[in-house]
Amino acid sequence: MVKKYSIKELLDEGITVVNKKVLVKGWIRSFRSSIFIVLNDGSTIKNLQVVLSQELKKKNHKKITIGTSIQVIGTVTESIGKKQCIELHASDINVYGFVDSSVLQQSILQPKKHSFKKLREQAHLRFRTNIFSCIMRIRHHIAFCIHQYFHEHGFFYVHTPIITTSNCEGSGKMFQITTMDLKKNPVDYTKDFFQCKTYLSVSGQLEAETAIFGLGKVYTFGPVFRAENSNTSRHLSEFWMIEPEIAFYDLEENINLAEDFLKFIIKYILDKNMEDLSFLNEHFKKYKKNETEHLLERLNIVLKSPFKRISYTEAVKILIKEEKKQNMKFFHPIVWGMDLQSEHEQYLVNKYFKIPVVVFDYPSSIKAFYMRINNDGKTVRAMDLLFPDIGEIIGGSQREERYEILLQRIKDTNTDKNKLWWYLDTRRFGSVPHSGFGLGFDRLVQFITGMNNIRDVIPFPRTPNHAEF
Ligand code: 4AD
Ligand code: MG
């Protein structure tokens, strides 16, 4: 029996498998001189060079093109080429599927430079490109090490519902779900599937909070949905969020956790994904020539610097002072009480501190109802963690654990308390101080891979006007 290898396994074995007869399967990346096939199977960014025997060359392999899927049996030999240390001398080839030559011309499989926009339009084919397969492998490893981090730190993974009746964040629109015939006017939602109006969840936080009262430390990792009309390079309508929630944690412990967690992930990827990261690093060196720092440098800066921590009030003071000092004007004038805009966040991170920044104690008027109110009565124990280029990557807070105050905040923010009776109940059955945060998974993948647009780090992006595939 001939042993079956993935290309990664085979290349990892290197010269120790020379002279061995092996079987590999994959897709053709290039075919030169009717002899040399470059084969990739997705297991690694690297390709395997396959050399056809004279006999195989004579056989009719004319229909073989880029993209054709094949099985090869052959003998491993040491390679004289510089690119790889081994190659495969084929003795037998089987074709699984040819490529329709009439579609190949317009497809992104054609080996030339395609724009990211074009790759997105053929999202079903872009897994086969070097750059997108790199990003997808890194995305996988980030997800994997997130579970590892929490598991090793005593957190339990809880699955919170995707279908919900409440809006955790209060602000922004939700996608409604129904099985009703909406042409009937007026629609009676008591006759709907759940006998009430339901939506796709914007966050699993409220349900995760109930879990800490029995499990102590939990986290969620799932898709969330937001129907905001935000057409930016950092917004998706469907994205993935990780939300840890911890009993007996105050805001400072929460920020410490967020910093340690992010550094763990970046270190893990630098340790385990260097092949893919190096490919992206070289790619950007070529195409983002005007950038001063390259991908690996940027990751290392974040890894090595202690994150800067400042209050919202201090941040506002710095921004006002800088406007005067640098003689410039922000598009959105700075006033205490406003939500910081992307230009302000970017100024603090990219220009002023040049490292990640945590801004805490925001005005209560711009934050959600569940955040713990400070003694000044004006600010809440919120924190936003800002990253270079990305801006807000994490949003979190210490939660309001005092029943009466929470109830008042729910009223003040016009939140429907009847839908949150179960959430309020947690504050009546042995309430405790607790905290948590939400990490935007796709924004983190964007930062680690250095991609400009969040739509290029998720397989099938959902954004306003776009739900194809
Ligand atoms: O700041 P947000 O809205 O916080 C929450 O949802 C809280 N319930 C989290 C918590 O305390 N458990 O969202 C958290 C993060 C943001 O910092 C951002 O990284 C990401 O989710 N995010 C988005 N990512 C992609 N597309 C969007 N439209 C996003 N909106 C938020
Ligand atoms: Mg936020």
Structure summary:
With 469 residues, the protein is of the alpha+beta class. The chain is 32% helix and 23% strand.
Q: Over all CA atoms, what is the radius of gyration?
A: 27 Å
Assign the CATH topology of the largest domain.
BirA Bifunctional Protein, domain 2
How much helix, percentage-wise, in residues? 25-40%
Number of domains: 2
Strand order of the largest sheet: 7-11-12-17-16-15-14-13
Summarize the structure in words.
- The model has no long low-confidence stretch (mean pLDDT 95).
- Strand 3 and strand 4 form a beta hairpin.
- The chain starts with a strand and ends in a 20-residue tail after the last helix.
- It is elongated, with a radius of gyration of 27 Å.
- It has 469 residues and is an alpha+beta fold.
- Helices cover 32% and strands 23% of the residues.
- Magnesium ion binds next to strand 16.
